[in-house]
Design a protein that fits this description.
single chain, about 90 residues, Immunoglobulin-like, about 30% strand, Phytocyanin domain-containing protein, Phytocyanin-like, electron transfer activity, Cupredoxin, Phytocyanin_dom
Length: about 90
């Protein structure tokens, strides 16, 4: 999950393709968020691209790519060895 904190009316967030991200084009977004703050669910492994489509903010650098990795498999720590029993004298 990613939270974009922005002021409604001054900024927006558009999820776009890599090509649209590079070109700062918001005309064909996958998802758009116009009310801030926006909470975006990122459930699949991959790279997500977001831009601000208002004004020239994207060209000024108001854009971000987010890489989602798979969580590593949790490996249980090894169990402790049983105590060594010593023969009584």
């Amino acid at each position: 999950m990613k939270i974009f904190g922005f002021e409604t009316g001054f900024y927006d967030v558009m999820q776009v393709s890599r090509m649209d991200y590079d070109a700062c084009e918001g005309g064909n977004p996958f998802r758009e968020f116009s009310g801030g703050p926006a909470t975006v669910s990122l459930e699949q492994v991959g790279v997500y691209y977001f831009i601000c489509s208002l004004g020239n903010y994207c060209e000024l650098g108001v854009k971000v790519s987010v890489v989602v990795h798979r969580l590593p498999t949790m490996v249980s720590p090894p169990l402790p060895s049983p105590p060594i029993s010593r023969p009584s004298p």
